[in-house]
Design a protein that fits this description.
This protein is mainly beta. It has a single domain, classed as Exo-inulinase, domain 1 (Jelly Rolls). The chain is 9% helix and 37% strand. Strands 1, 3, 4, 6, 9, 10, 11 and 13 form an eight-stranded antiparallel sheet that branches. The protein has a five-stranded antiparallel sheet with strand order 2-5-12-7-8, with no helix packed on it. A hairpin with a 2-residue loop joins β10 and β11. It is globular. It starts with a helix and ends with a strand.
Length: 212
């Protein structure tokens, strides 16, 4: 009887800890419930063994729900020459100009620039090149709240910035040009989360999110 009481107490503590954690699964590991493809395409992303993978000739994949301030954690794996991305606060109808992208790329061993893994695409290079070799799983944690953005890859901080520093269209704070016709500080602070299909195989798993 004492053992049962102790077990129940442990289970209750475990449940409480889980609730206090606040994270929910963004990808259930079984199917694409809660997601949609844009542009519409008969081919869809595939789910196998709890992993989300790009299907040949599929389109970008987006959450049905919009998110503003959040913490997202996930794992990803790249293929040779992979070029993909994690979009957030983005308009699926206009992902190139209507949102933000953390670059996901096969850039192991490179001196990173504004287009390598961990970059805020075309706006800020990662502080370190933290991506692992092709075929190895990487962890990513993205935190956004208001203008503040912090991103870690494999436990290393690759971004720590304020979007409010991007005050001019087509120009970065360091004076270099970028593609954005709207200054990043003026971009919407709410939008969809998505994964880029750029013609290369890429895998994602254990995707979870906590609203802030």
């Amino acid at each position: 009887m004492k053992f049962k009481a102790t077990l129940c107490a442990l289970l209750l503590c475990s449940s409480a800890a889980f609730a206090e954690d606040g994270f929910v699964d963004l990808f259930n590991g079984k199917n694409l419930d809660g997601w949609f493809v844009e542009p519409a395409n008969p081919a869809v992303w595939t789910v196998k063994k709890g992993e989300l993978a790009r299907f040949p000739q599929s389109s970008y994949l987006w959450t049905k729900e919009k998110y503003g301030d959040f913490i997202l954690e996930m794992e990803f794996k790249v293929s040779p020459d992979c070029n993909s991305g994690l979009f957030f606060r983005t308009d699926p109808k206009n992902p190139v100009q209507g949102g933000f992208e953390i670059q996901i790329m096969d850039s192991f061993g490179k001196t990173p620039d504004k287009h390598d893994c961990g970059a805020l695409y075309d706006a800020k290079e990662p502080a370190v090149n933290a991506v692992k070799k092709v075929g190895e799983w990487n962890t990513l944690r993205l935190e956004v709240k208001g203008p503040k953005l912090v991103c870690h890859i494999n436990g290393q901080k690759v971004q720590d910035l304020s979007l409010d520093d991007w005050t001019t269209a087509e120009k970065n704070p360091d004076g270099t040009p970028n593609k954005y016709k709207t200054a990043l500080k003026d971009q919407p602070r709410t939008g969809h989360i998505g994964f880029q299909d750029h013609g290369h195989d890429v895998w994602f798993r254990n995707i979870k999110i906590k609203k802030q």
